[in-house]
Amino acid sequence: MRRAAHRRAGGRALLEALNARHVALWNPRHVEERLAIADELIDAARAAGDREAELQGLNWRVVDLLESGDLASARDAIDAHGRLADELRLLAYAWYRPMWLAMLAQLRGRLEEAAKLAAEGARIGRAANDENAKLLFAVQAGSIRFAQGRGLSPEQHAALEAGARSHAGAAWRAWKALIAFDGGDTRGAARLVADEAARLDAVPFDANWLYTVTTLGLGAWLVQDAVAASALYPRVLPYADRLALTGRGTYCTGSVALPLGMLAATMGDDETAAHHLDSSIRINDSLGARPFAAAGRHVLADVLERRGEDARAAPLRSQALAVGREVGITLPLQVARYY
């Protein structure tokens, strides 16, 4: 029985306390506890007849399920959230559904669909005059545009520079390293990766932490920085079974096992790299995250070739390249555009 059944006398104070507790635990270490709190908030809100608090609980439930990798349950929660937001006619919540659906489409490599959904969500966010929606859709639109190989717009570049100086600056700077690499500035990317890896202890352990360190992991692999990889790997390892997301699920970079495999390969530990990459392929395949599964196959092929296992590597590389052509990326380097 959920704890909410024992707290029905708590009223508004309980609902606010549960929401505050969820915010306080919003980091990778507490996803299971957060999900339990979200469910308790939903139950307590229903018992109190507070439908907006129920909607907030559903909002948290979506994010927690996405991070834990339970996309089937997350889709159900997204639908329930969307229905309730529509029923209550709350524009401040109505934009979340298209944002999450755009994220799921991008995860699968369906970028045109993602762009249309993001545009629809941004329109609702503007109608709601919601500053949080404005920021999140700017991030999402920039990530989709980058994944399409179109580069960032001037407005998105300005947001990137401002973000790099914000409280969430480490996440923005990690992304900035990938943009630099993709643009041919290998030295600049290497400098950013090295600088950020040297100050990992200063990165806030919050909702963006896992995205930050996994994106830096991809950057370390791209520039082949074994020192940065050695600093990142033990920090990322406890979250090998998670998905990396930004904010409230603005976008997702698939299984954490993929950057772990890249980090191990960069460190020269091919046996460990192969283990993580096999896991990443299995997880990303199950999620339908085709660009990330393809990247895992391509990197694993590299690892296997170094070990002299060319026969096993060849079909993996062929499969990866076929998916890459289909979703419009050149593997392995331009998979960075999906981060």
| Order of neighbouring strands in the sheet with most strands | 1-2
Largest sheet: 2 strands, antiparallel
**How many domain units?**
2
Strand elements, count: 2
Oligomer: single chain
Number of helices: 17
What is the overall silhouette? globular
What gap, in angstroms, lies between the N and C termini?
A: 40 Å
As residue ranges, the low-confidence spans are 4-9
Q: Which structural class do the helices and strands define?
A: mainly alpha
Look up the CATH topology of the largest domain: Serine Threonine Protein Phosphatase 5, Tetratricopeptide repeat
Model description:
With 339 residues, this protein is an all-alpha fold. It has two domains: 1-94; 106-338, Serine Threonine Protein Phosphatase 5, Tetratricopeptide repeat. The protein contains 17 helices and two strands. It has helices at residues 11-24, 31-48, 51-68, 71-88, 91-94, 96-107, 111-127, 131-147, 154-164, 169-182, 186-198, 209-223, 226-236, 257-267, 270-287, 290-306, 310-327, and strands at 243-245, 252-255. Strand 1 and strand 2 form a beta hairpin. 53% of the residues are buried.
